[in-house]
Design a protein that fits this description.
By secondary structure, the chain is an all-alpha fold. It contains 14 helices and four strands.
């Protein structure tokens, strides 16, 4: 019978490192072979068996926790683990695996449980959400090996994704950058920058340009930057990306140009690109992802040379 990996085992509370048992590090041969999907399913099955708390139960447990009751603390934490998973999904694809996001979110949940005071009003789920998000965002900003996004940028990307999903349900198709920008109150070009930051797993600290004076983060980090500098940085990034795109398969390169407007044109939806190539939107997505992975490897090699 399969057991959930220790990273998310409830018996040890939800933040035990995935390659340890009882505090001892396992060798590579001793580690159980779990893929991410299996681990998540097992974890969800386990936490799904925990009864949710009523407002009155939260008040009673909070009072016990203030007195140092460890069992009450553990019960409060376990009853809110599903909230962590829900929030963690909003930050997928930004540099850390979902299991790691959940573990980081669980740390935030534990802090919230320790500080929660029902006398001030509100439920733990409302109060805890802030702590969970903060913990996840800090982890993305500080711990990821492949991307270093400013915390506020992680917020913007997450909000953009949620808005995109909402609009997709309303329209029955993927929203354009213009539609997303109108909903979010930002320009279409800003939306395109956020999309690019969300899909690029290379370090945004990587210098760009001949003199290494700029970096990727500067292009998407400061909304209040003076327009001339903003335009100069955008041109530098665009030029470098265009040179990289030229090395791709012609079909892959064309799809990226259409999707992200790399030649200065309007970004096109998956459906629009699919019509041009007489393929489905899913096929366009697959080709796009293959091309983006190639670009990622190029950027990683560039970083390695510049270090």
């Amino acid at each position: 019978m399969e057991r959930a990996p220790k990273a998310v085992a409830l018996a040890d509370l939800p933040v035990v490192p995935r390659d340890t048992v009882g505090g001892e590090v396992l060798s590579s041969k001793e580690r159980p072979a779990y893929d991410g999907d299996t681990a998540i399913k097992l974890y969800l099955r386990e936490i799904g068996q925990v009864k949710l708390l009523t407002p009155q139960e939260e008040i009673e447990l909070a009072a016990k926790i203030k007195k140092g009751d460890k069992k009450a603390r553990e019960q409060m934490i376990k009853a809110n683990l599903r909230l962590v998973v829900k929030i963690a999904h909003d930050y997928e694809g930004l540099g850390l695996p979902l299991l790691d996001l959940i573990n980081e979110g669980n740390i935030g949940l534990m802090k919230a449980v320790e500080r929660f005071d029902p006398a001030k009003g509100g439920k733990l789920s409302t109060y805890g959400s802030w702590w969970i998000k903060q913990s996840i965002k800090r982890a993305l900003a500080n711990q990821s090996k492949t991307i270093r996004l400013p915390v506020h940028l992680v917020d913007k990307i997450s909000k953009m994704r949620r808005t995109a999903m909402k609009l997709q349900e309303e329209f029955g198709r993927e929203p354009t950058d213009e539609e997303l920008g109108e909903e979010l109150g930002i320009s279409a070009s800003r939306v395109a920058q956020l999309r690019t930051a969300a899909i690029r797993p290379a370090s945004l600290d990587a210098p760009i340009g001949d003199d290494d004076s700029n970096n990727f983060a500067e292009v998407v980090q400061d909304e209040n930057a003076d327009t001339p500098y903003e335009q100069l940085e955008e041109k530098t990034v665009t030029k470098m990306l265009q040179e990289m795109v030229k090395t791709l398969d012609p079909r892959e390169a064309t799809i990226l140009r259409y999707r992200f407007g790399l030649d200065g044109g309007t970004e096109k939806t998956l459906e629009e690109v699919g019509e041009k190539f007489s393929v489905t939107r899913e096929r366009v997505r697959q080709i796009q992802n293959v091309a983006l992975n190639k670009l990622r490897r190029m950027i990683e090699k560039l970083e390695a040379v510049q270090k």
